[in-house]
Structure formats: C-alpha cells, structure tokens
Amino acid sequence: MGWESASHPCPPPPAHPLSLSTPAPHPDPVPTRTPHPSPPLAYFCPPLHYLPHRLLPAPPSLFQLCGCGLLGVGIWLSVSQGNFATFSPSFPSLSAANLVIALGTVVMVTGFLGCLGAIKENKCLLLSFFIVLLVVLLAELILLTLFFVYMDTVNDNAKRDLKEGLQLYNTENNVGLKNAWNIIQAEMRCCGVTDFTDWFPVLGENTVPDRCCMENSQDCGRNSTTLVWKTGCYEKVKMWFEDNRHVLGTVGMCILITQVLGMAFSMTLFQQIHRTGKKYDA
C-alpha cells in the first residue's frame, strides 16, 4: 500500500507566508443613533448678572411715559385754562397747571437718566438716577409722615387759606380760580369751604354763586339760602379721599414699587459694570 490512502488523505500543504490571501468579510456594524445634545439652560435662562441689562430700562421707561403724560396735561391746562385751580392767595404760582408741569418734568428727566444709563452702561448716569430716586423717595416719606403727624394743623391752615382765596373769586386776573370753584361746587354738590356762609363776606349777605344751587339757573344764588348745598367743599373732598382710599393706596404702592425696583436694578447694573472694569466716558 502506498503512503497515499483514501482513508487517510494528506493534509493540504501550508500556505506560504508571503502568499496573498483574501480575509473573510466582516459584517457591517449596526449604525447607532447619537442623541442630540440638549441646549444648555443658559439658552433659556440668561445669567443672573445679565438680567439688569434687560430689566433696568423697564422702570425708567414707565417714568418717561408718565412724565410725558403729566407734562402734556400740565401744558394743556396752562394754555387752555389759564391759572386753573389757583386756590391759595399765599402761593399764587401754586396752580394745578404749574404743579403738573413741574412733576412731569422731574419724572421725565429721571426716566431719561435711567434709560440712557442702562443702554450706554454709563456709571455716572446710573448713579445719578439712583440718587434722584432716593431723594424723591425720602422726600415722599418725610412729607407723608409730617402730614399725618400734623394733620389737624394742616387742615386748619388749609381751610383758612382757602377762605382767604375766596376774596379773589370775582377779580379780573383770577378767572381760573372762579372756574375751579364753579366746577368743584357743581360736581361735588357743595358750597364754600366749610359751608355756604363762607360766601357772604365775598358776594354779600345771603348770596352764593349760582353753582351752589341745587337747580342751577341764572341768579339763583341771590338772596337764597334754602335751595343751595349746605355742606362745605372741604369736607366733600375729604369724603372723596376716604371713599377712594383703596384705589389711592394701590396707586401709591405701585409708584413705590416702581421706584424701589428702579433703584435696585440701577445699583445692580452699576456694580456689574464696576466689576467688569468698564469705564464711563467723561
């Protein structure tokens, strides 16, 4: 029998180490889906130190709008109504028009300082805005405290001054005073300061303005004391303030909150600019 046998075949010769061989194909890798990274929280919520840059112009903008509105009303009163509501002879320039114009100017200039300081990041303007708001806030608190402490004295002085102002009712240069008294007496259904007898030294015995009559007509106030309003306008005004104290308190709180927010945001932005080393232009 030879060395080759059908039952014992010879193994194939080993492949030469330098021979080329085709590697076995590998299966394609299964593609994996990479999750999309979520946007950072700062994309939705800016850093806290950046908030004053966005929020500070809001309170000054409110100041500017209110100031422009008050200034417009004051100019309209001054042009169309003259010295409207100049009640006090001790302070002839203390008219409603002048008060509204002065208040509107202060409010508008204050808002302008805050807006320009926030937009330009000017530390000088921001500090000026803060100081003005602080002075106004302290003045409001001081005046409010003095008013409640000396309320009786304020009431007595106001009544006395208003009664002296009645002497100017029929004078030529005080049309605004006459119009103001006529409107108040007709709208609030009152007569005089404390009562209808306040007009007797001014217009004559048993004589009141026609607007004091319950049914207004020409010369209805002459020699008539039965069909006129008996309550004084000073008490009527006090009753109006008492009836609307909740509304007035809400308005006062809104003004106070706006002032405090403006002060807080201005000082926060001032400190942020100071920390980042930004300098304002001289």
UniProtKB/TrEMBL annotation:
Matches recorded under Gene3D superfamilies: Tetraspanin
Superkingdom per UniProt: Eukaryota
Region named Disordered: 1-35
Family statement drawn from the similarity comment of this UniProt entry: Belongs to the tetraspanin (TM4SF) family.
CDD domains membership: NET-5_like_LEL (cd03165)
Record bears the keyword Membrane: yes
Pfam family, one: Tetraspanin
GO cellular component, one term: plasma membrane
Alphabetical list of InterPro entries matching this protein: Tetraspanin/Peripherin, Tetraspanin_CS, Tetraspanin_EC2_sf
SUPFAM superfamilies linked: Tetraspanin
Bilayer disposition of the protein: Multi-pass membrane protein
Transmembrane segments: 62-79, 99-119, 126-150, 247-270
Classification of source organism: Eukaryota, Metazoa, Chordata, Craniata, Vertebrata
Protein's cellular compartments: Membrane
Species of origin: Ornithorhynchus anatinus
UniProt entry keywords in alphabetical sequence: Glycoprotein, Membrane, Transmembrane, Transmembrane helix
Main location: membrane
Pro residues composition bias: residue spans: 24-35
Keyword flag Transmembrane: yes
Protein name: Tetraspanin-9
Record note on quaternary structure: Found in a complex with GP6.
